[in-house]
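F.,

This is the one I mentioned.
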């Protein structure tokens, strides 16, 4: 990096969806913005699979014809897995098979983030790849400490800008240190994390379409809970790419460590389930990765703006960890709102916390915070989840199997036996209470 590059109007740390959307907005406004990404390219370290595109479609309306999208999701399914049985609720709409495809896509982030980075460059922004931000650069102004840039690994001089957007993703070390140095208040409770693991399996497009019952070009998204997850808080997913499947799981880290279960064992158990195994048959494992996801909900979100600083995306804990598991779209929304606050700050020439807290206000009024605020009781739901998962998936799957059992007896007896078996020994009041608490996960 030459001396002439050591100043910008805004620096973004991290080229994930949050940082790239912030940079895209800033560059479009004509601001000189530089995104610093430690990976060899944007998306090199990212994993996620489903992209809700409501925010992207506002920024790049013609993205469906430009972005590397794997398949639109035309069909969704939610299932219970039990050792010897399963239940699968599959649903869709003819509307999902035509544009705008319910704004739901399967994407591989390695390709998608790279494309989004190219949009930032097209708009006039700069992406510095393979470059690590080690620390923020601080300056004192009277009794106030403000952020005035970043320190890059291997560079002596700081890289200056009046405002830095931290988009480091989950468990960002620079973010953590900045919070402490700038005395930014934390959330009401510490952040908690889910561990996400994903594998990509190669399969021919026609095999995928046959196995999932899809029209050519259409995709499916399946989510599963039940026995492979050993009563832990979490579940698995299976998404269809063009010529590959993305199979993975997200399990609350705390419940995994408490139960002393290894993520590899969980993944092997998930893949070994006959209902899952059949989708992978004949496939070739292409890649594997693991990443943390903030799942603490609104009470784990702390202060997000300070003098010269804004925090966005997973680094800010802005993930909807309900059944929607929405991270990337919310990351993009927070990135865009942060950029709007930075644009306003440039107009005013004021990068103080007061000025930049426009971001907090816009966030509060957005659907993001509305959704997140509904997760304030998610911890209670997480507490009862293992108990319910130990009971319900197999009971429900067995009930359906038993209802259709063929025997030379009246059907009334078959039904009676099926319900008796399903309810036998079930603590009914407790289960009803648990189900009520589970609404905290609906989002
Ligand atoms: C297995 C798994 C499945 C998921 N599935 C979904 C899904 O289906 N749908 C969904 O919406 N969300 C999903 N998510 C969540 C989603 O991936 C995140 O919410 C989203 O990526 C957050 O975007 P971000 O830009 O905040 O952070 P990230 O995407 O994590 O990007 C942060 C970037 O910052 C870079 N960086 C970090 N530190 C530094 C540094 N010091 N210097 C320079 N660069 C740095 C990183 O290399 C990275 O590129 C999933 C997550 C996982 C782990």
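My design for it:
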């Amino acid at each position: 990096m030459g001396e002439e590059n050591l100043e910008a109007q805004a620096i973004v740390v991290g080229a994930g969806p949050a940082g790239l959307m912030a940079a895209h907005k800033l560059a479009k406004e004509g601001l000189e913005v530089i995104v610093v990404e430690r990976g060899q390219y944007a998306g090199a370290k990212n994993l996620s699979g489903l992209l809700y595109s409501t925010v992207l479609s506002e920024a790049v309306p013609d993205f469906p014809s430009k972005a590397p999208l794997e398949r639109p999701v035309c069909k969704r399914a939610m299932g219970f897995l039990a050792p010897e049985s399963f239940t699968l609720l599959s649903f869709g709409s003819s509307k999902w098979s035509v544009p705008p495809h319910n704004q739901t896509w399967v994407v591989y982030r390695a390709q998608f983030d790279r494309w989004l980075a190219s949009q930032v460059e097209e708009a006039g922004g700069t992406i510095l790849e393979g470059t690590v931000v080690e620390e923020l650069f601080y300056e004192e102004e009277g009794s106030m400490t403000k952020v005035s840039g970043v320190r890059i690994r291997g560079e002596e001089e700081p890289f200056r800008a009046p405002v830095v957007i931290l988009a480091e993703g989950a468990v960002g070390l620079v973010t953590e240190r900045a919070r402490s140095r700038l005395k930014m208040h934390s959330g009401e409770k510490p952040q908690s994390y889910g561990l996400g693991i994903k594998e990509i399996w190669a399969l021919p497009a026609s095999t995928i379409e046959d196995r999932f019952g899809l029209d050519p070009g259409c995709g499916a998204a399946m989510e599963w809970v039940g026995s492979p997850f050993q009563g832990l808080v979490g579940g698995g997913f299976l998404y269809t790419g063009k010529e590959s499947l993305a199979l993975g799981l997200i399990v609350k880290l705390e419940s995994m460590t408490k139960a002393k279960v290894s993520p590899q064992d969980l993944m092997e158990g998930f893949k070994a389930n006959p209902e899952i195994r059949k989708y992978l048959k004949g496939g070739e494992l292409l890649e594997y990765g693991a990443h943390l996801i903030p799942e603490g909900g609104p009470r784990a979100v702390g202060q997000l703006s300070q003098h010269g600083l804004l925090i966005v995306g997973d680094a800010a804990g802005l993930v909807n960890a309900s059944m929607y598991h929405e991270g990337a779209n919310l990351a993009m929304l927070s990135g865009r709102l942060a950029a709007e606050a930075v644009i306003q700050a440039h107009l005013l020439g004021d990068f103080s916390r007061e000025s930049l807290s426009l971001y907090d206000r816009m966030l509060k009024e957005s659907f993001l915070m509305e959704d997140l605020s509904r997760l304030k009781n998610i911890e209670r739901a997480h507490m009862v989840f293992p108990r319910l998962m130990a009971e319900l998936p197999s009971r429900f799957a067995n009930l359906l199997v038993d209802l259709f059992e063929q025997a030379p007896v009246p059907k009334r007896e078959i039904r009676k036996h099926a319900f008796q078996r399903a309810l036998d020994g079930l603590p009914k009041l407790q289960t009803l209470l648990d189900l009520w608490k589970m609404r905290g996960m609906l989002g």
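Residues 209 and 256 are 34 Å apart (CA to CA).

Talk soon.
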